[in-house]
Amino acid sequence: MNCCLAVYTAEHGLAWKAKDISLAELDVCRTLLAPLPDLDSGDVGYEGVAALGERVFVIRCFKVEKWDFRGRDAVYLVVAWMPRSLAGFVDFEAILRSPQMTVPTHDEPQAFEVEFPVNADFEIGHRIAETNSGATLRFVRHLDGSRKWSETMTEAERFLTSKEDHGSCRKCQSPAERHFGVDGNPVKGDDLREAGVANGQVAPSKVVRIVVAILICVVLLLIYGCIGACLGWRHSGGYIPMAILLATMGCVWRFLTKDKS
Asked: What number of other Cβ atoms are within 10 A of residue 228's Cβ?
């Protein structure tokens, strides 16, 4: 498989060198994993993999000394990309160690061949393959000798990756078909079950709490009737005892069912 390349660096000013991809997509890559390193403060740069939409981007960003036309140090950000559907078969470590990703050049970036190792087990690729294409998944590490990956996702992206939390909802392709809260953010699976919208049914725990609340309210009515009979109340004891009973029942109902209405 051919892996396409693009480079963002400075010669006569920061600019992209690329083909076969829109600049809008590439501009997202400048901050997809992390902000561009601050060379003056000693940032070492970073590398990583990001699944965004139907593409997977492999990104490496580092400093090159005496690089632009005036001999000044410059940021060098190189991006390779491939279809998301192939992520589970790709050795991303091999791509990041390739000369195309590690050796800076002023020439036009050229695509290079990526091999599919047989019976390989690559955690990042499999993790991407397991997620919904609507979720953005990032793996990033700093170029300080550390070999540890950090996986970063927003709450909305995490919602789209979980198969257990939203079941068939992960197959929704339109945002209108997904469950969103009143604040516009996707509702987590636990919240869906709590609200009784998961699979279009009321959650069992919600039903149990409603039944218990009804039973307690019935018991309170019986106790109230017994007290009234013992005291010889007429007209159910009047407004004050009835108001106290209704307030007590309302508190019990709200506490057990969490019904704020």
From this structure: 16
Q: Rg (Cα) of the chain, in Å, rounded? A: 30
- Which runs of E-coded beta strand occur in 84-229? 112-113, 137-142, 150-152
For residue 231, with 0-12 CB atoms within 10 Å meaning exposed, 13-18 middle and 19 or more buried, which class applies? exposed
Q: Give the model confidence (pLDDT) of 32-63 as tens digits.
A: 998 988 878 888 899 999 999 899 999 999 99
Average pLDDT over residues 130-141: 83
Three-state DSSP at 195 gives helix
How crowded is residue 242: how many other Cβ atoms within 10 Å of its Cβ? 13
Beta bridge partners of 47: 60, 141
Exposed / middle / buried, residue 172 (Cβ in 10 Å: 0-12, 13-18, 19+): middle
Nearest C-alpha neighbor of 131 from the set 148, 107, 153: 153
Give the dihedral sign, CA 245/246/251/252: positive
179: left (phi over 0), alpha (psi -120 to 50) or beta: beta
Extract the tokens encoding 12.
């006569």
| Chain-centroid distance, C-alpha 46 | 21
Write down the pTM of the prediction: 0.58
C-alpha–C-alpha distance, residues 170 and 187, integer Å:
12
Residue in this structure with the two tokens 């407004």, named with its chain if needed = 239
Contact predicate 9/74, CB 8 Å = yes
188 alpha-carbon distance from chain centroid: 11
Bridge-partner residues for 60, per DSSP? Answer: 47, 78
CA angle (198, 213, 183) in 5-degree steps: 40
